[in-house]
Design brief:
- This protein has about 300 residues and is α+β, with helices and mostly antiparallel strands.
- About 20% of the residues lie in helices and about 35% in strands.
- The protein has helices at about 10-35, 40-50, 275-305; strands spanning about 65, 70-75, 80-85, 95-100, 105, 110, 120, 130-135, 140-150, 155-165, 165-170, 175-180, 185-190, 200-205, 205, 215, 220-225, 230-235, 245-250, 255, 260-265.
- The strands form four sheets. Strands 2-10-9-4-5-6 form a six-stranded mixed β-sheet, with no helix packed on it. Strands 12, 14, 15, 19, 20 and 21 form a six-stranded mixed β-sheet that branches. Strands 11, 13, 16, 17 and 18 form a five-stranded antiparallel β-sheet that branches.
- A hairpin with a 4-residue loop joins strand 4 (about 95-100) and strand 5 (about 105).
- The longest helix has 30 residues, at about 275-305.
- The protein is elongated.
């Protein structure tokens, strides 16, 4: 006869329950591990596409360092640089695309556009891929895309804004200063939205070092309301040696040249007697006097005859 086992003590019951708990835990872990260890191709794709700004693990893939929608300021006639920083690029390729016509500009280090103002700059150990645009024109303004050759392609857009900035010396092109008087020349940079790096003054095409000799150069002033910058060159007591041509240079380029005459208080017009227009004027005046003399002589001869 078969008999149902009888557990005579509570210790036997506790022992069986403990072993059953251990077996249940092992079964649950095995099932959960087998379920989470499998990923479909779609899952992997989503994992790559959802790469965070600070990804961890080998499945993060390449990602952009910059935030989307960055605006880059270019200056008309100067070189503009759009820098795209990429981490975990691996063996993938970086391309630059002009957005409004989807025209490929560069792929890797190769230029595809016939416009030779564009080129790709990259150092092997760097994460930066730079699109360089020389002699920037107002028509170059617009959206540019930095693309990574993933599937699907990942891209980051940059907005290039081009401004017409220039450097000038406000005032007359010819200036007269008495010996011992104050000479003051201001260099003005107009409509420059970036941080200005330098303003340099020149006398007869030689750079004037800051605060050397008779010259004092003020610190660069930023006029935030108008995106203008300025700096002034001054001489407290001008001498003949400060005569000559002056100009300045800053990030947007060089200014026009002005001529400064330092003289001993004589009529400034007298400094121009040797100029071509004044020589012609004096010759015309001499001819007029000669003509008047001839006419007078003829009238005298006519009066004597009659």
């Amino acid at each position: 006869n078969m008999h149902t086992p009888v557990y005579k003590t509570n210790d036997d019951v506790k022992f069986l329950l403990r072993w059953w708990s251990y077996i249940s835990i092992i079964i649950i872990n095995l099932l959960s591990n087998s379920k989470s260890s499998w990923r479909s191709g779609v899952d992997l794709g989503q994992l790559y596409d959802n790469a965070t700004p600070s990804p961890t693990g080998s499945l993060s893939g390449p990602y952009f360092v910059e935030s989307p929608g960055k605006t880059v300021i270019g200056v008309k006639g100067k070189t503009s640089n759009l820098a795209c920083s990429i981490k975990n690029l691996g063996n993938l390729t970086v391309s630059w695309i002009r957005h409004h016509d989807t025209h490929p500009l560069t792929t890797g280090m190769y230029r595809y556009t016939p416009d030779d103002r564009f080129s790709s700059l990259h150092k092997p150990s760097s994460e930066n891929w730079v699109l360089e645009l020389r002699d920037t024109k107002m028509g170059d303004e617009g959206v540019y895309e930095c693309q990574i050759s993933t599937t699907p392609v990942r891209s980051l857009k940059f907005n290039l804004k081009v401004v017409d900035s220039f450097t000038t010396l406000p005032g007359s092109l010819v200036r007269h200063v008495d010996v011992g008087s104050v000479l003051n020349i201001t260099c003005l940079v107009v409509n420059y939205p970036l941080k200005l790096e330098y303003i340099i003054f020149y006398h007869n095409n030689k750079q004037i070092n800051r605060n050397t000799g008779p010259y004092f150069i003020s610190e660069i002033q930023h006029h935030t309301a108008s995106s203008n910058y300025s700096s002034s060159l001054s001489v407290k007591s001008a001498s003949i040696q400060e005569s000559g041509k002056y100009h300045c240079a800053a990030n947007p380029g060089q200014s026009e040249h002005i001529t400064v005459h330092v003289h001993h208080g004589e009529n400034p017009a007298g400094l121009q007697l040797n100029s071509a227009p004044n020589i012609i004027a004096h010759r015309l005046l001499w001819i007029a006097h000669l003509g008047l003399f001839i006419i007078t002589i003829r009238f005298q001869i006519f009066a004597d005859l009659y």
